[in-house]
Amino acid sequence: MELTKRQEQIVEIVKQEGPITGRQIAEKLSLIRATLRPDLTLLTMAGILEARPRVGYIFTGKTINSLVAQRINKIKVKDVCSFPFVLDEQVSIYDAIVSMFMEDVGTLFITKNGYLEGVVSRKDLLKATMGGMDVSKVPVMVVMTKMPNVVTINPDDPILLAAQKLVSREIDALPVVEVKTLANGEEKLRVTGRITKTTITKLFVELGETR
Amino acid sequence: MELTKRQEQIVEIVKQEGPITGRQIAEKLSLIRATLRPDLTLLTMAGILEARPRVGYIFTGKTINSLVAQRINKIKVKDVCSFPFVLDEQVSIYDAIVSMFMEDVGTLFITKNGYLEGVVSRKDLLKATMGGMDVSKVPVMVVMTKMPNVVTINPDDPILLAAQKLVSREIDALPVVEVKTLANGEEKLRVTGRITKTTITKLFVELGETR
């Protein structure tokens, strides 16, 4: 939705001088009240202005951009996450690298008895190959980031939170996890999906391509 | 902007039966025309319906989501691109890997005489270290993707196009380039910026965080 030049003038006036009545706004713009009615209706229904009886219009602080934000905030992790690829922590670094190429993923989720134990990135693997290790013998668990230092996300979290974590923690992927409580009371994480910067980029394209 | 239940009903009626007059819509909803006026004004001004004199309302095909798309389509590459990091093609693979860690980037742009010659990804470097090459002797140009196979973007292109290229070409980064014509008529590309999936993820967070 594009605001017209006049609607933007109205928002500016209310921002500066609100609460202000429709009549006062009309005077400032040298227009009659009736001319402004559709604009004021639109701005009020869009949530940009609020009409308070016997007080006048006030600016709610919302803008067109905040309407975009509203749309983004409705999307949940489970709506867009992709299938996770996991490897057991005993797998060799060499086999982990081969899997990374075969599956064409940038980050591997590492499990022990089926529960999340760590993550390993291309960067971790590149470091390992440079370090002169015997990559066909050393298990991947030696070079992974281990729990509880793994950043995770839940299926019901907003996708915005996932994107914020990717940016602020400077990582490429997040395992989507569900908590399972074992018989001994210990809590473990089962990996049910994957959110990456590719997921966010695809979602951005989808939002931008909508006609 | 959220549509109310009644506004959604109106859109549905116009979608099915448009062109249709305000009076006919009111009858269908068992309401009087005046009650619907603010809704019809809002839907028309938001561009979702179009009011044609002596014909009635028609559905434009636009939705709330297409308003989000409009906002996204206004952002240009030059508004959000970051500073590019470039390396000369004669630099060794080993030095390229060290630079990648030092600069903390996932893709390196490779130049010759200051003009774009190729790009090299973490994946390319990981392959090289696995391949048993002497990475301290072999120049990075041996393992890079070379021009004209490098996917690029221009500063004035919409950011949506950049995101589409990242997704469809399955790459992590795009060099932002400007064409320079040499004295001999040859066209070369100068790298002026960088767009990555991180750029898009940051932009997504920014759009989603707007209040």
Automatic annotation (TrEMBL), chains A, B:
A Pfam family that the UniProt record links to this protein: HTH_11
UniProt keyword Repeat, yes or no: yes
Domain CBS per the UniProt entry, residue ranges: 144-210
SMART domains in the record: CBS (SM00116)
Keywords annotated in UniProt: CBS domain, Repeat
InterPro entries: CBS_dom, CBS_dom_sf, CBS_domain-containing, HTH_11, UCP026546_HTH-CBS, WH-like_DNA-bd_sf, WH_DNA-bd_sf
Gene3D superfamilies: CBS-domain (3.10.580.10), Winged helix-like DNA-binding domain superfamily/Winged helix DNA-binding domain (1.10.10.10)
SUPFAM superfamilies noted in UniProt: CBS-domain pair (SSF54631), Winged helix' DNA-binding domain (SSF46785)
Protein name: Putative signal transduction protein
Organism in which the protein naturally occurs: Thermincola ferriacetica
